[in-house]
Amino acid sequence: MMFIVNNSILANGHPKGSLEDTSNVFVSKWHPKMFYVVLPDLSLSFMLPDEPDRTGVHNLFFISKESCDPLLLDTIKYNERYFTPFSPGSCYDAVLLYNNGKYVKCNDIVFENGAEVNMRNQKIQPSDNVSEYWKKTIRTFDRELGRDDMVSEFIIKGYVFHEVSGSSYGAFVRLIGADGKWNASDGYFEIESKDDTEQTLVVSNAGSIAFEKSNIIASCGFIIVLIESPEAKQFRLHPELWKPRKDTQ
Which of 113, 119, 139, 207 could disulfide-link 232, Cβ–Cβ 3.0 to 4.6 Å? Predict the structure, then answer.
């Protein structure tokens, strides 16, 4: 399994000391209630609070207890997107940053498989110098797409990654029993739901095991790593087994 992560680079992919001014960049007013992280060996759920100011979520990120650097759930390097390989048992501070600079912070979160992190019981902190720095240097969750035509509050957004390469991965994403679907050719998807009812999300691609998550809230975020199928793994490791047989006659 290959990962590309460089902790000396800020979450927006720019080296320290080379800040990107995001103050004039369009930001969508997205109000997710949940955030799901599905990695090969780690599954996490984050319950997000309601924001009274309704400015929208900028991003969810984590502060390393060792380096104190902010880490997003994905890393962009050389114009490629990779998922960040958080390890089970590692400890981080979780930060939910809003577009107005206010934020919610949960300290000392241990990443255990299946853990649910309740950020709803934390007080929303006022904007300060540190959060303004975060907002200026950390990209928004959907920054790369830059869409501004989603008007519903009930939007599911996420990224799909490949288990082996670690990079973003094209996939077909749909909601069961709903009209919503998205061809995530670049790994990113947005699906608009008509109401706030619970949904079932299905993500699939040839060569991977389909992912399905039921009872999700209609407004939420996802980071999904699709697991390679046994057939695709066999073909990758033993391509000679799939060569056409010569006619023996």
Answer: 207
